[in-house]
Design goal:
Largest interface: A-B, 92 and 79 residues
Structural class of chain A: mainly alpha
Radius of gyration of chain B: 27 Å
Distance between the termini of chain B: 87 Å
Shape of chain A: extended
Shape of chain B: elongated
Distance between the termini of chain A: 73 Å
Structural class of chain B: mainly alpha
Largest sheet of chain B: none
Strand content of chain A: under 5%
CATH class of one domain in chain B: Mainly Alpha
Number of helices of chain B: 3
Helix content of chain A: over 70%
Helix content of chain B: 55-70%
Largest sheet of chain A: none
Order of helices and strands of chain A: HHHHHHHHHHHHHHHHHH
Oligomer: heterodimer
CATH topology of one domain in chain B: Helix Hairpins
CATH architecture of one domain in chain B: Orthogonal Bundle
């Protein structure tokens, strides 16, 4: 979801009026005149007007490219990381190499942010900023600036080294391809071998869309409209969560992908168990809710208002469960709080051990670097 | 749509670059930073899988990787100081006398390019006029 689509406050007409007024004021402030001209306020108003206007266009006419910002940022940061990494490895001057490495760290931190890890992004920037400044001090302290040196201007086995590195890269990428869904599609296999994620992005989008449609259905009062809206809904939900094994149409829905509870069948951690249980509940509710809907509507030629109300009364609960299941596919929003909780509950022993390692490393550093006085 | 495989591919490239740097470069500090580059590739892998499986185990593990990297940085810098004191050089090949028995020593065949000493190409100005007499200092 893009930034602009997220700004969904206020009514659209008011939004358009705001954009127009802001734009007019911006140009008024920017136009040259002896009194009352302010470039700062004008620029600010112009930017605000542009943001509101783009937000209105996206809301009214649709998003031209969904997640355009995310895509651009991903390509920018990964190109930055790889480009500066290449510069760093091939740079003769170690000081410049350290600066290129700093840019690699910044780009990788951008990727961390895209991967929903804001705490690690901040921590990595802080830690590596310190580390790189220290490295830089070492470079200044220990290297000689006069002319070419063995350590900077010679390479150990350049041909063999780069061949080894790229052979490794080729093998890793090939293994990645073999485990990806693209390979499963190319070779017509039923399922890819990587342990599956609980709720994939496509399933999440489908679940939220169905939940939206369900909330519209409960407001309808007309038999035909309700049947029209819910015609494919049952099969779409069944495609995601599967059908109960006892149901008559247990084999009626052919699906290339496994349903969510089937995919999680082998996993035993609490989160996966809870997701699996939720998926199985939705399976049962899906059958019950739509059976009730069809029984109440299809059997009667002119169902009363009471029948219509009874036919859709199970749908809000189903909708709620669908939204819960969609949320299972994403990391929690409060990143710092949740990492803290995980560290001090599940990984408490590991945290203590990391602290011990740091202490030992500090003592070791001091012990190694101390200049020993050889007594005469 | 950017999937987890895109991130894994970027991480693999970063790791391979760090590997090449560690294998081929001879400056100890550059070798150390190359090892850090490999660690960044690993952390990117962990975070991509953390997002993919929608749990925080990968992010917690990445924090421990950062911890180990900090320890590594401290120890490595202390070692560099000690090594530099012995030989006045950051070249890793200086220490090749410690290699295993039976491994041939590496010899640098090509001579390094020589750079003229600073000031060698500066233009020489002919002294013009008489040299001013300095007043005698008492």
């Amino acid at each position: 979801m893009s930034l602009f689509a997220a700004m969904q406050t206020g009514n659209p007409l008011g939004q358009l009026a705001t954009a127009v007024v802001l734009g007019a004021l911006a140009i008024y402030w920017l136009l040259p005149k002896p009194r009352g001209r302010s470039i700062a306020i004008g620029t600010f108003a112009a930017i605000a007007s542009a943001v509101v206007l783009v937000s209105w266009v996206v809301r009214r006419f649709g998003d031209p490219a969904p997640d355009l910002v995310g895509n651009i940022l991903f390509w920018l940061f990964s190109a930055g990381a790889i480009g500066f990494g290449t510069i760093f490895v091939s740079q003769r001057n170690p000081g410049r190499g350290a600066i290129a490495f700093a840019f690699v760290i910044l780009s990788v931190c951008g990727l961390f942010l895209l991967l929903a890890a804001p705490f690690l992004m901040a921590a990595t920037i802080v830690i590596y900023a310190g580390a790189i400044i220290v490295t830089f001090l070492f470079v200044l302290m220990l290297s000689h600036a006069d002319g070419p040196t063995d350590e900077n201007d010679r390479t150990r086995e350049p041909m063999l080294g780069s061949l080894a590195g790229f052979a490794f890269l080729g093998l890793v990428l090939f293994a990645l391809y073999q485990s990806s869904p693209a390979a499963a599609i190319d070779t017509n296999e039923a399922e890819y071998v990587l342990p599956a994620r609980p709720v994939s992005g496509e399933e999440r989008a489908a679940l939220l869309e169905i939940a939206e449609q369900l909330s519209e259905v409960t407001k309808l009062q007309d038999k035909d409209a309700i049947l029209e809206k819910t015609k494919l809904m049952r099969d779409r939900i069944a495609e995601i969560v599967g059908v109960p094994p006892t149901s008559v149409d247990a084999v009626a829905v052919p699906s290339r992908r496994k349903s969510i509870p089937d995919r999680l069948a082998l996993l035993t951690d609490p989160r996966s168990l809870a997701t699996k249980k939720l998926g199985e509940e939705i399976r049962q509710m899906n059958v019950k809710a739509f059976n009730a809907l069809e029984n109440n509507l299809l059997s009667k030629a002119n169902p009363s208002a009471n029948d219509i109300q009874k036919s859709t009364e199970a749908l809000p609960a189903l909708r709620e469960k669908l939204i819960y299941l969609a949320g299972r596919g994403e990391l929690p929003a409060r990143n710092v709080a949740n990492i803290g909780y995980v560290l001090y509950s599940e990984y408490l022993l590991a945290v203590e051990m990391a602290g011990t390692i740091l202490l030992v490393a500090t003592i070791g550093t001091v012990a190694i670097a101390t200049r020993k006085r050889i007594s005469a | 749509m950017i999937s987890v495989w895109h991130y894994l591919a970027v991480a693999a490239v970063l790791f391979a670059l760090g590997l090449i740097g560690f294998l081929t470069r001879r400056n100890l500090i550059t070798m150390f930073l190359s090892a850090e580059l490999m660690l960044q590739g690993v952390v990117l892998n962990l975070l991509a899988f953390s997002r993919f499986h929608a749990n925080l185990s990968g992010q917690a593990f990445a924090l421990f990787v950062v911890t180990v990297a900090a320890c590594e940085a401290g120890i490595a810098m202390a070692l560099f100081i000690v090594l530099y004191r012995r030989n006045k050089s950051l070249d890793a090949s200086v220490w090749q006398s410690n290699r295993e028995a039976g491994v041939p020593s590496s010899v640098d065949a090509d001579a390094l390019p020589t750079v003229a000493a600073e000031g060698a190409d500066d233009p020489k100005l002919q002294p013009a006029g008489a040299k001013p007499q300095e007043p005698a200092r008492v």
